[in-house]
Amino acid sequence: MKKKIEKVAVIGAGSWGTALAMVLADNGHEVRIWGHKEEQITEINTLHTNEKYLPSVPLPHNITGFSSLDEVLSEIETIILAVPTKAIREVLNKIANIRSEPLIIVHVSKGIEPDSLLRISEMIEQEMPADLLKDIVVLSGPSHAEEVSLRHPTTVSVSASNMETAEKVQDMFINQNFRVYTNPDIVGVEIGGALKNIIALAAGISDGLGYGDNAKAALVTRGLAEITRLGVKMGASPLTFSGLAGIGDLIVTCTSKHSRNWRAGNLIGQGHNLDEVLKNMGMVVEGVRTTKAAHQLAVKYDVKMPITSVLYDILFNGVNAKDGVDMLMARSKTNEMEDIANVFDDQNSIVHDKK
Ligand SMILES: NC(=O)C1=CN([C@@H]2O[C@H](COP(=O)(O)OP(=O)(O)OC[C@H]3O[C@@H](n4cnc5c(N)ncnc54)[C@H](OP(=O)(O)O)[C@@H]3O)[C@@H](O)[C@H]2O)C=CC1
Ligand SMILES: O=C(CO)COP(=O)(O)O
């Protein structure tokens, strides 16, 4: 079937915004990308590269850079919001001041806001006046920008409260290299994408300490258990966590050299200090702020999250990484399956409550 060609604006010219702009450009859309650094936009428009974020990757010529939000949004119905969680409110605020027509906002960020404990779709609902918001869609899954930009096979999920809009976004992005599934569980897709960064930091620390594959498999598996426990309490379907936005993204982020969260954890495990690691990364490491948020969520929802809790102590309370691992291994004995049964009990009670 022939694709509907659209004008789309990608807001955020970092690694992920640029890689997704390439997918859209490959699909023939008229792609605009907005960034707040004039010299980077000039580079995109003249050299057709974005060397800082995707070194040595030529960008398709149907991507045009904009440094004015006003201009990038003109005659646009759909934006792809690709800035770090920390910048979302600021950017939406600017958009809300410019815009007079409703937008479909596809967000691709993976975080939860500390203190407010809001998911990104909830932050968007708070920041954008209802008359400027047509729909919110989340796109998430195992997808490092570096590999997407090389057109390596990649799969992601999109979710929205309006599934027709999710399908529209699926059609906009899907191609031979970039396979897009829909999933009706927006809470699960957002929680899975955000919380896997915590476990990736922990996996990096484990590797940095010199531990091996057994430790990493333990972190991924028990990490998934605690993500699922919290996600279900927040209203997600447990099934989402065995999908792309759950185990899929956990695997890719905990095992890939591309992951900034894994790399940051790896350096911390080797003994480097958190502030120094974040300063030298030059790109966002979402898991640090999300650890703070998840630690608060675990208290709010009364959910056991031992990996998150130990990571919180390593990042913010000066606990030594090796001592943190020892603390996890010395926890009182428990039954693996009880956890799983509790998740399904919680899910049943959510279903009954809704009836
Ligand atoms: N990279 C990836 O593979 C993937 C990333 N994601 C998610 O996408 C989101 C964005 O990440 P990613 O692109 O990788 O991050 P990067 O660090 O690569 O890029 C972030 C971009 O946002 C810009 N930015 C930061 N603050 C502001 C602001 N206040 N106003 C305007 N622009 C701002 C940065 O500009 P500057 O250059 O000035 O810093 C940069 O262009 C994150 O939530 C991440 O988890 C999701 C899937 C894959
Ligand atoms: O979300 C990602 C891959 O799916 C990117 O992970 P990092 O932010 O750790 O690089």
TrEMBL record:
Pathway: Membrane lipid metabolism; glycerophospholipid metabolism. Keywords: Cytoplasm, Lipid biosynthesis, Lipid metabolism, NAD, NADP, Nucleotide-binding, Oxidoreductase, Phospholipid biosynthesis, Phospholipid metabolism. Substrate binds at residues 110, 260-261. GO terms for biological process: carbohydrate metabolic process; glycerol-3-phosphate biosynthetic process; glycerol-3-phosphate catabolic process; glycerophospholipid metabolic process; phospholipid biosynthetic process. NADPH binds at residues 15-16, 36-37, 53, 110, 145, 260, 284, 286. SUPFAM superfamilies: 6-phosphogluconate dehydrogenase C-terminal domain-like, NAD(P)-binding Rossmann-fold domains. It is an enzyme of class 1 (oxidoreductase). InterPro entries: 6-PGluconate_DH-like_C_sf, 6PGD_dom2, G3P_DH_NAD-dep, G3P_DH_NAD-dep_C, G3P_DH_NAD-dep_N, NAD(P)-bd_dom_sf. Signal peptide: none annotated. Its EC number is 1.1.1.94. It is found in: Cytoplasm. One of its GO terms (cellular component) is cytosol. GO terms for molecular function: glycerol-3-phosphate dehydrogenase (NAD+) activity; glycerol-3-phosphate dehydrogenase (NADP+) activity; NAD binding. NAD(+) binds at residues 12-17, 145, 260. Sn-glycerol 3-phosphate binds at residues 110, 141, 143, 196, 249, 259-261. It catalyses: sn-glycerol 3-phosphate + NADP(+) = dihydroxyacetone phosphate + NADPH + H(+); sn-glycerol 3-phosphate + NAD(+) = dihydroxyacetone phosphate + NADH + H(+). Catalyzes the reduction of the glycolytic intermediate dihydroxyacetone phosphate (DHAP) to sn-glycerol 3-phosphate (G3P), the key precursor for phospholipid synthesis. PANTHER family: GLYCEROL-3-PHOSPHATE DEHYDROGENASE, GLYCEROL-3-PHOSPHATE DEHYDROGENASE [NAD(+)] 2, CHLOROPLASTIC. NCBIfam families: PRK00094.1-2, PRK00094.1-3, PRK00094.1-4. Belongs to the NAD-dependent glycerol-3-phosphate dehydrogenase family. This is Glycerol-3-phosphate dehydrogenase [NAD(P)+]. It comes from Cytobacillus horneckiae. The lineage of its organism: Bacteria, Bacillati, Bacillota, Bacilli, Bacillales. The gene is gpsA.
